[in-house]
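quick q for whoever's on today - can somebody do inverse folding on this one?? i tried earlier but teh output was garbage lol. tokens:
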């Protein structure tokens, strides 16, 4: 059972995860348009991961006897300043998502909603990895600077990322 407050907060965040998926889909297309095919792949994998996050919330809300509801959302950006700028925006977005997950967790603690606290723990851990990945790529891009060969090498490395479906599929 979810309180009305917890239900509303989880449903709002479910939509934010869907927004994240659309944002990264746009980034994938933008990277492709820049000729960065490997980076386009990296963002496509990121899109698929966000769809898993979205479905985890969707399934959890429904499993608690409530109705998950997809709502209207703002269109995500489709123009990004540069290779580095794209990952800086990604890190900023993930830091925002981390703050949302922390707020949800605080609400679950306040409400003594143990089931939701356990559900959210997966996301607390996931956000550490998400931010770490972005910081690592930003660090490499800053080292590379304007070196075209270095950018091509990194793009090639990002092209090796593979989507791994979760061991516990959400639906
Ligand atoms: Fe679902 Fe990247 O946070």
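ok took a stab at it. sequence:
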């Amino acid at each position: 059972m979810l309180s009305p407050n917890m239900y509303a907060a989880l449903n709002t965040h479910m939509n934010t995860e869907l927004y994240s998926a659309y944002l990264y889909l746009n980034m994938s297309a933008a990277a492709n348009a820049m000729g960065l095919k490997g980076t386009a792949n990296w963002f496509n994998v990121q899109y698929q991961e966000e769809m898993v996050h979205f479905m985890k919330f969707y399934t959890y809300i429904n499993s608690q006897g409530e109705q998950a509801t997809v709502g209207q959302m703002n269109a995500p950006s489709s123009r990004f300043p540069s290779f580095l700028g794209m990952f800086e925006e990604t890190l900023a977005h993930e830091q925002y998502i981390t703050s949302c997950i922390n707020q949800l967790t605080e609400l679950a603690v306040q409400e003594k909603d143990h089931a939701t606290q356990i559900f959210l723990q997966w996301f607390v851990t996931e956000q550490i990895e998400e931010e770490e990945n972005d910081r690592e790529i930003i660090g490499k891009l800053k080292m590379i600077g304007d070196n075209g060969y270095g950018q091509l090498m990194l793009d090639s490395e990002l092209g090796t990322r593979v989507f791994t479906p979760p061991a516990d599929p959400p639906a």
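fwiw The radius of gyration is 17 Å. also The mean pLDDT is 97. so keep that in mind when u check it
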